[in-house]
User: Which sequence fits this backbone?
């Protein structure tokens, strides 16, 4: 049965960072914080486990600003066999949080826009030292983590240092094209430069055109994955292959970060039916016209 494969749970719309290219996963950034409660999450999960969804990814905002996020991760870990992921800026990870995450199978993805204070602060408006401390706690407790890097024109000059940082730790990094609200496709123009750069510092390359993903293994031990985006081509079939629907903290579903329409979950007991309807109506691209 065709269905969503991934549920991205946005546990809050608030973040302690101010990244210059933030789209907040399509959420409106409001003065009043929106928080998904653990109890509502559990009720929704009882319906989710009856669907073909096989992965839960927690994000936000910064998901660790919601104290219930850790409890949600632990619940998925203990009560399901679903894959579970956490996307975070890493700044709130301390020893207590690292110890709790160590006991789960969560795969952590950490936002890495630059290395050292000047480059890092230019993008995030926050200090590098706190980020490094979070990384140190993840290393100490052997957490499984990788990095994300957004191919934004504002941060592209940091890519060499970012790749070196990742390679020294023999970690993985995912390069994400930045799709702007106005769809200027600025990061699309950087893709060719990325390929040339990575071809020089890697010894193995794989290109999966069907999924729109290219992998490189770097000479220093790191691994790079570059995601194309169906937003550029408006290819709805490729987009549906990603199979991801977003659960917003105010109990609404969103099929695309650029789709202003959301589906209100008015009855949590019907979540399976609501998800099926959201998939069946996801049949066109929500990308606006280029400006």
Assistant:
């Amino acid at each position: 049965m065709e269905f969503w494969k991934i549920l991205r749970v946005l546990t809050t719309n608030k973040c302690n960072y101010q990244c210059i290219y933030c789209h907040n996963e399509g959420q409106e950034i409001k003065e009043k914080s929106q928080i998904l409660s653990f109890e509502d999450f559990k009720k929704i999960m009882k319906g989710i486990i009856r669907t073909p969804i096989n992965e839960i990814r927690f994000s936000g905002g910064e998901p660790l600003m919601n104290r219930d996020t850790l409890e949600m991760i632990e619940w998925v870990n203990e009560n399901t066999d679903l894959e579970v992921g956490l996307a975070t800026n890493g700044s709130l990870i301390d020893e207590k949080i690292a110890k709790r995450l160590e006991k789960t199978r969560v795969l952590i993805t950490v936002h890495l826009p630059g290395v050292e204070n000047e480059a890092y602060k230019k993008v995030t408006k926050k200090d590098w030292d706190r980020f490094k401390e979070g990384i140190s706690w993840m290393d100490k407790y052997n957490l499984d983590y990788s990095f994300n890097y957004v191919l934004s024109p504002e941060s592209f000059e940091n890519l060499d240092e970012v790749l070196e940082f990742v390679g020294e730790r023999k970690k993985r990094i995912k390069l994400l094209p930045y799709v702007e609200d106005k769809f200027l496709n600025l990061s699309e123009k950087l893709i060719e430069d990325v390929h040339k750069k990575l071809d020089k510092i890697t010894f193995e390359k794989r290109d999966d055109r069907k999924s729109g993903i290219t992998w490189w293994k770097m000479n220093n031990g790191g691994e790079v994955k570059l995601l194309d985006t169906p937003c550029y081509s408006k290819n709805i079939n490729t987009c549906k292959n990603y199979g991801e629907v977003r659960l917003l903290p105010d109990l609404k579903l969103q099929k695309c970060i650029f789709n202003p329409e959301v589906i209100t979950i008015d009855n949590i007991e019907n979540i399976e039916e609501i998800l099926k309807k959201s998939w069946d109506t996801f049949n066109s691209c929500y990308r606006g016209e280029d400006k």
